[in-house]
């Protein structure tokens, strides 16, 4: 193999890959502008049309898929062998370019290899499946190296093609020409940031095997799994909940202006007490409608939470404070935009996600009943109980199976808002208790609406919800199990544990 490879001229790119960033537009090549790097190439024997560019780009649309696009602009040449290595440490890669083909033991490293006869190829590498990577946190660094060989179309000696070298005239320094950073973080794709040039000359080339970063084991009592697609919805929902919150993101008119280019569709409304938005991301055929929580600055809005009277939506009696938070002056506009968004998918039915934090969650629930013909997924974070259930209003019109109720916890407390004890109100759906590890997500059961004490309003903070959800996304282990907590986990109620909750600790019944 090595001998064969040496017949072709070698081109090597080393990409330093660490936390921080991602993508821009789809136009390429664009030298140093962000997403691609091009090398001028020429032939010594003046093959006509052989001058051109060899370009490489890393679209990083999905945090767990590395896409390497390589394009050779010289008419007389094709790509031949392409290798992509990944590592979690620079020493995981075969760095010494001059020696790499001669000495690299390819099996020493994890790589993807494609043999091609094309002028332009796209290689997709799954960090999880092909490379066995998890993405444990936002600070994790990954390193990637791409090797490509080229071959003349008419079989001329390939050595004739050479890279016009970088000013340093050192092949090793070519490694520094592609200092891209890529990230496991789904949402910070503002731009590709050039990483400060690091000298890699003198780096040891001794093989240093990549450590596999394993996902935690699945608990045997997993009740159900939250798929990656579902968790992606949850993470978009919590992000969009930030944009709909006036005290954090500002007035909706400003947010709309700032965000409209970042989404395929973005609309937002506000009135005195409430704000809502409808958004469809560019990379996901899903429609999100998010509702603002209590506007702490406006006492009138806080009062919405305390209104005890109720109105029917479908067969659900919803407390008027929350009905009003949905039944706003802009409700009809909002519904039109949701219709338009849902119909914008090829099959005419994009999935619809309704979401909100705090009072916004209850408004999302009211919307979910009103829009039940779309069979929406409702994702709430620390939502209060919105329903007054009676014999006449059993509330079967809420699709509770797809109502995901995230509730923040720590060892001592529960978010106080979901369990506020306003006069017999209730809630339905899948209860997900967030702790600091979220493996598994605590699952006391379907419709497990019992009041949990002690409570703390500090745990109601939207930012805490966001941090926990993003930590789950960053870990990159899917599906995420939801299960009663296991032996040794904190607890206050039996339904939180696989066994019993004894002295605030889950105990496996078998041991007691
Ligand atoms: C990479 O590996 C080398 C050698 O094992 C080690 O000294 C170095 O600290 C590692 N770097 C990082 C960033 O983990
Ligand atoms: C959850 O997913 C894991 C990993 O794919 C699988 O082993 C387990 O059986 C699944 N459990 C349920 C309840 O779906
Ligand atoms: C929603 O608001 C309209 C007026 O804007 C009102 O006629 C209607 O009764 C309200 N619906 C509910 C359920 O409160």
From TrEMBL:
Pfam family name, one: Lipase_3
Residue ranges of every copy of the Fungal lipase-type domain listed in the record: 314-408
Keywords: Signal
GO BP terms: lipid metabolic process
Signal peptide extent: 1-24
Protein name stated in the entry: Fungal lipase-type domain-containing protein
Protein species of origin: Seminavis robusta
């Amino acid at each position: 193999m090595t001998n064969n490879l040496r017949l072709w001229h070698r081109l090597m790119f080393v990409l330093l890959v660490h936390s921080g960033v991602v993508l821009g537009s789809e136009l390429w090549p664009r030298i140093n502008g962000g997403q691609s790097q091009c090398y001028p190439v020429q032939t010594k024997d003046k093959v006509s049309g052989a001058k051109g560019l060899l370009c490489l780009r890393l679209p990083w649309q999905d945090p767990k898929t590395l896409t390497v696009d390589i394009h050779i602009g010289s008419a007389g040449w094709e790509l031949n062998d392409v290798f992509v290595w990944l590592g979690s440490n620079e020493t995981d890669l075969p760095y010494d370019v001059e020696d790499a083909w001669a000495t690299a033991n390819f099996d020493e490293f994890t790589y993807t290899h494609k043999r091609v006869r094309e002028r332009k190829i796209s290689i997709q590498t799954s960090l999880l499946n092909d490379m066995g990577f998890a993405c444990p946190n936002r600070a994790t660094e990954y390193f990637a190296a791409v090797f490509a060989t080229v071959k003349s179309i008419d079989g001329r000696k390939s050595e004739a093609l050479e890279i016009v070298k970088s000013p340093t005239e050192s092949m090793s320094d070519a490694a520094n020409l592609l200092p891209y950073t890529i990230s496991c973080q789904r949402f910070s794709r503002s731009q590709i940031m050039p990483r400060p040039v690091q000298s890699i000359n003198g780096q040891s080339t001794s093989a240093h095997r990549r450590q596999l970063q394993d996902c935690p084991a699945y608990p045997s009592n997993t009740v159900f799994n939250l798929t990656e697609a579902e968790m992606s919805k949850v993470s978009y929902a919590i992000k969009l909940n930030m944009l709909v919150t006036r005290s954090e993101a500002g007035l909706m008119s400003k947010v709309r202006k700032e965000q409209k280019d970042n989404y395929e569709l973005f609309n937002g409304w506000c009135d005195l007490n409430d704000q809502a938005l409808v958004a469809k991301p560019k990379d996901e055929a899903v429609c999100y409608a998010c509702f603002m929580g209590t506007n702490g600055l406006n006492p009138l809005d806080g009062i919405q939470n305390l209104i005890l009277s109720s109105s029917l939506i479908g067969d659900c009696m919803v407390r008027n404070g929350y009905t009003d938070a949905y039944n706003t002056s802009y409700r009809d506009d909002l519904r039109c935009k949701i219709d338009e968004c849902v119909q914008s998918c090829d099959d005419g039915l994009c999935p619809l996600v309704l979401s909100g934090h705090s009072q916004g969650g209850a408004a999302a629930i009211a919307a979910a009943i009103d829009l039940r013909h779309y069979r929406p997924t409702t994702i709430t974070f620390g939502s209060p109980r919105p329903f007054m259930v009676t014999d006449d209003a059993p509330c079967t019109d809420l699709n509770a199976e797809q109502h995901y109720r995230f509730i923040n916890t720590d060892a001592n407390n529960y978010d106080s808002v979901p369990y506020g004890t306003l006069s017999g109100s209730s809630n339905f759906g899948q209860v997900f208790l967030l702790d600091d590890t979220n493996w598994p997500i605590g699952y006391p059961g379907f419709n497990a609406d019992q009041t949990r004490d002690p409570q703390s309003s500090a745990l109601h903070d939207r930012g805490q919800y966001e941090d926990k959800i993003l930590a789950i996304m960053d870990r990159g282990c899917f599906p995420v199990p939801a299960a009663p907590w296991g032996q040794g986990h904190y607890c206050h109620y039996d339904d939180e544990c696989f066994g019993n909750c004894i002295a605030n600790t889950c105990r496996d019944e078998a041991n007691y």
